[in-house]
Amino acid sequence: MIRTLDTKTARRIFLDRHALAESPSGPAKGDDLLQMIHRLGFVQLDSINTVARAHDMILFSRRPTYRPKNLKRLYEKDRALFEHWTHDAAVIPMAFYRHWHLRFLRDADVLKARYKNWHRDGFEARFQTVLDQIRDHGPVSSSDVGKDEKKGSGGWWDWHPSKTALEYLWRSGALTVVGRSGFKKVYDLTDRVIERDMCPGALPCEAEETVDWLCNAALDRLGFATSGELAAFWDTASPAETRAWCERGLQSGMLEEAQITCTDGRLRKVVMRPDLLDKPPLAPPSSRIRVLSPFDPALRDRQRAERLFGFDYRIEVFVPAAKRKYGYYVFPLLEGDRLIGRIDMKADRPARTLRVTALWPERKIKWSKSRQTRLDAELDRLSRFADLDQVSFQDGWLREAK
Question: Most buried residue, 220, 224, 301, 400, by most Cβ within 10 Å?
Fold first, then answer.
């Protein structure tokens, strides 16, 4: 008989795996911060800074004592993290590095074809020139290479050949990003900063071993999932590989088929560990209101967020202003095991003020005085984190659900 997880149970398991069930507290530097990132699997990097950058808000929402310098030290000085791609650019525990060789190989094949389709003529001829420059003169950013080449606007659609070569060599493993300067990537030779000095025993895994690790690690961080969700978590194993992995797990008894009850009442088949529901029930999540980054790992899969929480969320950064439903960069609000609304706000740094433009509660959410008090407390914490002095609300900020 297939076991069923009701919506509340599924939410609590999912939030627990994303470190959003417990009270946001605890140390957030050194080994403690590394353990948090290990628990999440990775932290997505993003340059948008309306209040704070996405990676910083992801960590702050779980550990309010976190400060950006703590991540910078782990990444750039301690070398406990490396930067590469999952579904997007992210910092990843160095302990996982050996499983990224498969990603290097697959990215090399995909990007070589993609760049040729984008008419990036000449980028392959720049490989050795770029490698020699870094070997002889040390780490570089994109502005340090190809100085004899015509520079474009800086967008991916207008990269010069040496910039394209840098990106390709990084994605395919020859180069490593060793830090960011003004959010611009700084590259060095991988065999100089990782494979020779940092983890000489981190030899590449066989593809089958890596796929097994990717699927296990994804399921550990999701609690339950479809094969497609397992594939999407790291975005390295193919859907066919994760389907085969699930089939083997079900046949061996290492996995169990189950179903979750979605917010619309529909049942969705997933796989889980056989002992998932045999553990003591999880306590209700903290009722404290948290502002989540639009790129929070709990929200990354927008369709899953809608199935589990009934929360229809789309980021509208690339939507023309006149066509936006909410705003350029609107933050989801989590309370307990519910996503209760979204808030449009921005740091006015010259005035040292966090300015709230609008807040839309979700349908059936009453915006009570106690809820406003909890929001005020969270915004005060967030403003201090963003190095601001006060919070202000624009006239008419409280809107009706759409």
Answer: 224
